[in-house]
Structures are given as C-alpha cells and as structure tokens.
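Quick start: read one record
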Amino acid sequence: MATLADVVRRWGPEYLECFGERIPASHRRALRDIAACRTAALGGQLTRCNQCGQEQYVYHSCRNRSCPTCHGDETRQWVAARRLDLLPVTYFHLVFTVPQELRGVIRAHQRLLLSALATAAAHALLRLAADPRYALGTIGILAVLHTWTRDLVYHPHVHCLVPGGAHIPDGRHWIAARPGFLVPVRALSVLFRAEFMALARKALPDAQFPESVWHTPWVVYCKPAVQGASKVLDYLGRYVHRIAITDSRILSTENGTVTFRFKDAEAGRWRTTTLRASEFLRRFLQHVLPRGFHKVRYYGLLSPSYRPRLRQIQLLLTTSESASKVPSAAALESAPAQGVYRCPHCDTGILIVIAHFAPCVRSPP
C-alpha cells in the first residue's frame, strides 16, 4: 500500500526544485523529515524476540508533527490527560468557520490570522456565556485548530469542546446549561465575526479585507455532544499531532498521480479523487503550520491558571451516580507501558534491543 512517505520520496525533490525559495522552511522540514521517517537515515536498533529469536531492524521515527506515522503514543497520552479534565456534565461541540473570501489572506499570514481565529472564537464564547441571560459565569473551552477538508482543500476552522455550564464568580457554585442549549448561535456568529475582524485588522493594519465578509454568513455550529465528550476527544486527538490525511487513505501512486479516498459528509459515503503528485503535495503542505505554532489552546475553566479550581468543580459536581463518569488519575497509571513491542512473527514474544546503529548509515541487508 502506498504511503505519504512514498509520495514525498518519489516526487518531493521535483516539488522542491519547481518551487525553490518560495517554499516555507516549515514545508521543507516536513518533506525532509517525512522522507527520512523510519529509514536508516535516522538510525535505529536491531531487535530480537525473546520467544522465537527472530531478529529485525527497527528504524527511528522523524517525530515531525505533520507525519501520519508518528505520535501514536503522544496522541493516546494527550487524550488520556484531557479525559482527566472532563466534568460529569453534558458537553457541546462547536465549530467556527470563516467565509471562503478570507481563506487566501489567512493562508498568506498563518501565524497571525490563525491565532486570531482561535482567539476570536474563544473570546466570543466567553463573552456570550458571561451574559446574564445565558450561563452567567466562566465556561471552559478546549480549542483545536483545523485547516483542511476531507479532500485536503484549505478550510481554516476551529473545533471547540465546551462543558455545558458555567462557574459563577463566587467560586462555589455551578450553573448547568439548559438542555440542548449553550448560547444562541446567531449572536455567537455575529460576535465571532466582529472579534476576528478586529484582531485581523490590528495584526495586519495595511491589509485589504473584502467588504463582502460583512454580508456573508459566518457559519458557527453548536450541538450537544450526544455521542459523549470522550468520543469528541478521540476525534480531535487524531489531529493534534498530525494533519490532514493518513496513509490508509492513499490508494495508489502511478503515472505521476496520487489517488486517495475521502468521506463525503453530505452524501454519507466514501469517494476517491486523483491528483497530480505536485498538486497532492501542495494541498498537503498548505496544512503544515509554522514552527512553534500551537494548534491546541485552552481557555476559561480549562486554562492552566484555572486548573486548581477545575478540580474543585469536579468534586462539587461528582455524586455517587456520576462518579464513574469522571476518570481518575489511575487511568494513566494503568495504561500499557510505552516502548514495549510485541513480536510480529510469533505474536507472543517481546522485542528486545540488542544493538544500536547511528543515523545516515546504509540500510542493512
């Protein structure tokens, strides 16, 4: 089966030669790291099964956050840690999007405007939730930035997971949200637009933004997480340490093209599309964020400064009936040990490292 690394190794050099200095440093690094991932270029170990004695080479991972084959352990640990923050209440899943007319300028100024996007979504939510007509207090927000559609088109948006309720100013009470309702979506959309445009104009005072953005609806989705907050966390966790596409969705690479599958949400079925290799790489790389950019952010009750109060709220809301809904710290301790790998040949033994080899050596026979 074809992988993203196969595509990068085969057509990456041609892509670099074609676009030259116009390619951002973060894109160059992603291509370099993904091409070298789990190859002798990064070094590795020789392992032996403690049961059947079979030996095999295990190469190091590149650990680039855009690589689809890395960060499995980190993803599981992130999801487990976030589960420790869950409250025994109904959660809401919100998605904030911007009009298509703004996608170009956001892509050209990712570091500034993607930060503005996440900040605007959070500030709009916090302001509206503090309104006496709604939650009347401080809510918690876990925000995760996405920039892609299922077919890799650039579409910046922010997913938010929000507990259904607020912590009121006296610090001793919790006000639950009304069943199925957090805040009015239309008012949230208008406030989000105003917040984002104010931040964007401040960040780019000389930029020209199309007037049509004031007359185009800004879509904000807000629904109870009926499948449970844990399921939403699993979904968000898949893209915290990687982006856009997994190897399993790439079907073939032939005649200078890449064919991959994607889920058509409207039709509710899987479809396939075929792109020139250069276009596939362009679509993939436009989702590689600038180095050091934080795609996950925490606000309100979930911000680091609020963490001690969050534990108090968990105790306040936890009853004998709901105690089982709040994960304990033992959940992390009972997780399988990391770095222990089962032998793929006998499926019973454990692989033991017997030798190391340095990076940039020739591949073992």
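The first strand starts at residue 44 and ends at 49.
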